[in-house]
Write a structure and sequence with these properties.
The protein has a domain of about 190 residues: Neuraminidase. About 5% of the residues lie in helices and about 40% in strands. It is globular and about 65 Å long. Strands 3, 4, 5, 6, 7 and 8 form a six-stranded mixed β-sheet that branches. It contains three helices and 30 strands. The protein starts with a strand and ends in a 17-residue tail after the last helix. The protein is mainly beta. One of its GO terms (cellular component) is cytoplasm. This is Kelch repeat protein. Pfam families: Kelch_KLHDC2_KLHL20_DRC7 (PF24681). InterPro entries: Kelch-typ_b-propeller, KLHDC3-like.
Length: about 350
């Protein structure tokens, strides 16, 4: 867990409601995951609703994909499985999910049982704990996984992801769609916003968030060109205008699979994977990242001044003249956390 005031990570010992507090590992007899605790996975989604986190989908190589809905209570530090009814979406990874009102909308992903990309939309009603397929009209986005979705007002916007030239089945002939799609969650109608400005190229495993009524896109990976991105774009649904954003301060390296969350007027970006190269400069795998970046939309004078101090190493030269509380903040902003360290190298082409 990250304290967004001190920038310190702490390890949270969570537990399941049907397990002992100290039993957060695999059971010894059959090595199956404890029921309430979600097993380690990738390609899942996590959404917030009324102060709790809801995790759905994702997969790993040992247990495959999941269709179980897990709920995490950050006050009790407790996981539980949500009992659901209705038409549960097939287990998958690489989908997207957004919460609007009392409903969670899930789109796309790669279904494990049928080994196919999806272009269907499902909805979960938190008031009834019921899943159903969301009936839509118009032309849906291409079958895809590892795209992003955001909700602005009553619309869900889908961007990016990996599709295939053959359609819903994976032939390794990847294609990347740079068109933006919008789903009206009141009428169920898909539409193609007529966009203007400079928008992002097609990509997968990027980040998307909303702030001030706009959608923001960062990073990602274009498999057909083996290219990672470190660019930032905004989309204004009022004008359908894309804009490439120029930021100040140190920025994240080109990457994919990072996670982002908006807290107040700040965006916290953590981790991801970046390409590493051998001595000849050729790509030789991926490195996991454990770095943290903060994008501040409304920086205070204090934080702007702190940036100048840090860039010029003034906190080291004049440490004894800086008030203790400010020294503590500067230390927190520049001192690495010891709780998480990156893996140096791995070969992984998924996601």
């Amino acid at each position: 867990m990250l304290d967004t005031n001190t920038y310190r990570w702490v390890f949270v010992k969570a537990h399941g409601c049907d397990a002992d507090d100290d039993d957060d590992r695999m059971e010894e007899d059959d090595m199956e995951p404890l029921r309430s605790l979600p097993y380690q996975r990738y390609g899942h989604t996590v959404c917030a609703y009324r102060g709790r986190a809801y995790l759905w989908g994702g997969r790993n190589d040992d247990y495959g994909a999941s269709s179980t809905l897990h709920e995490f209570d950050p006050v009790l530090l407790r996981w539980r499985i949500v009992p659901v009814e209705g038409r549960v979406p097939p287990a998958r990874d690489g989908h997207s999910a957004v919460v609007v009102g009392d409903r969670m909308f899930l789109f796309g992903g790669f279904e494990e049982d049928l080994q196919r990309f999806s272009q269907e939309t499902y909805v979960f009603d938190f008031t009834t704990n019921r899943w159903s397929e969301f009936n839509t009209t118009g032309q849906p986005p291409l079958w895809r996984d590892f795209h992003t979705a955001v909700a602005i007002d009553s619309k869900m916007y889908i961007f990016g992801g990996r599709s295939d030239h053959t359609g819903q089945f994976h032939s390794t002939r990847d294609m990347y769609d740079e068109r933006l799609k919008a789903l009206d969650l009141r009428t169920g109608e898909w539409s193609d916003p007529i966009c203007n400005g400079t928008g992002p190229s097609g990509r997968r495993s990027h980040s998307a968030w909303t702030y001030g009524g706009k959608m923001y896109i960062f990073g990602g990976y274009l498999g057909t060109h083996n290219m990672h991105y470190d660019d930032l774009f905004s989309f204004d649904p009022q004008t359908n205008h894309w804009e490439k954003i120029k930021t100040s301060g140190p920025m994240p390296s080109a990457r994919r699979r990072q996670c982002t969350v908006v807290v107040g007027s700040r965006v916290f970006l953590f981790g991801g994977t970046m390409p590493i190269k051998n001595s000849s400069g050729s790509p030789s795998g991926l490195a996991d990242l454990a770095d943290l970046y903060v994008l501040d939309y409304a920086p205070s004078l204090k934080h702007l001044a702190a940036g100048v101090v840090l860039r010029n190493n003034l906190h080291k030269m004049y440490a004894r003249y800086i008030p203790r509380d400010l020294n503590r903040e500067l230390w927190a902003m520049t001192t690495p956390n010891a709780i998480s360290t990156p893996l140096t190298q791995r070969h992984d082409a998924t996601g």
